What does this fold into?
Amino acid sequence: LGAGKTTLLKHVLENGEGCRVGVLVNDVAAVNIDAKLVARRGSAEGGAATATSAGAQPTPSGSAAGAPAEMDMVQLQNGCICCSAGDELFGALGELISLSYVKAARYDHVLVESSGVAEPRLIRDAFQDAEAAGFQVMQAVRLARMVTVVDASTFAEQLNSIQQLRERPDLLEVADDDDGVPPPPLAPPAQPEPVANRAVVDLLIEQVETADVVVLNKLDCVSTEQASLVRVLVRELNGYATVVDAKFGEVALSDILPQGYSPAEVEAGAAQPETVAQSNGVMDHKATVDLAVSKQADEPADALAGHSHGHDAHAHAHGEPAGQPDPADHADHACGGSDCGHESHAHGYVHAEPAAAKPVAENTCGDPDCGQDHAHAHAEPAATTTAEARFGIRTFVYARRRPFDGKKIRPLLDELCKVQTEQATAGKLLSVADRMKEGEGDSTRLWAGVLRSKGFIWLEESTQAAHYWSQARVHGELAELGQWWAAVPRSTWPDEFVDSILSDYDPSSRPAGAGGVGDRRQELVFIGVGLDEKAISAKLDSCLVDVPADLRG
It folds into this structure.
């Protein structure tokens, strides 16, 4: 919230790149479009340039189609259009698409502005559910890219937040960046829990993780050191996103709009890459694990002390999902076993390789660690950068094939969150010096650097159900999910996903595809500063118990 989304959309609408863009916003007035760029009724552009929609009144002949404060829709001379979304996302999309057909002028892209407290996974779910349900509007649109705008000047501060959203009326009641107008409920309905109950930091991290593009805005408001820290944090949280530096919301359209989706590109059969927008929670997790493992492979040997597990458990096929749903998914998305046929189990997700940050238009990055040449087309995840080395931020994967004792692992998660709360309350963010300060207890030294941890959990008392561990700074939860594939009859497995399912199996039970440990596992990704992998792994190992007798062999 307040990161500059509306300002960015204004630049998109006023683009001179010949791209026709339809934009759904919370409030047209807040966009403050330059009246000189607004089409006039009966102008040489052809006919009435301002349409009536959702209560909007036609502009009087000869007058500017500006005065957006009194209108729900404004059309620009470059063919772009901006309209208020009203209170129902897909209804508003349908109206916008219908208008484009009536005017025989298809948009190259449609952008939807969500509120600053929107939950991107729920928005992604809503589009996937709408497609599965056969919504007519989904015949004309596809969710192709998700963009998060980050306020670089407050990002680190927000990571220190210990509050829930209900304790931040400034976040829940303010509509958008500039005018403070309450928004219509643009986010999809039927959320599993009120957004007000979410921790601010938990939502902040989800918005960064669930993005194809992260725009770092307001870089002119921070020092070079702060900009470097924010950039590294974002890359660690989402190593596959394209990071775009921006000032005053100014970005090139090519940086935020997906390729291969304009009418001309579709007709020409252009490739449409799979992105996080078509992913689901399981594939998000697989991608995070694979990236973390590749980063570990690039680290010096002394950084991997205590790293003893093999990588066989990570031989995931990105194009096919495994059987566990995302804890943030709608409740009815959890895999219930053999009768689970939800669309989220059948979305392919082929990642683009991790991308380097793109510079602001004037090519003045300001980051001493990246230099002026930003043409970093990484063929594989980059080795540790000097910025990462300076801040001490790293990632590792903890993987085991034995169950946890629930009575031990839950208190351990509570301890982690307690330490993080103490650190955040003290205003400490990712400081090795503070973390190792003399006099601090063992638990503080162990957990203070853990910014984010997440992944699948196998509990001794629940051999049938998978659990998901999710910790975002001060917020942590351990939630039950659907069944492990090993607990589902082999005869009910989808034929097209058998290889992917077996890739998550313990090698000893993989050939038969039934019995044994199967895909039950501990698979946790830790992201933070100065992480003592050996000590953290030992602490987690102390919570392990033996494999139940009925699953051995």
Remarks:
- Residues 41-71, 174-192, 301-383, 435-439 have pLDDT under 50 and may be disordered.
- The first helix runs from residue 5 to 13.
- The longest strand covers residues 462-472.
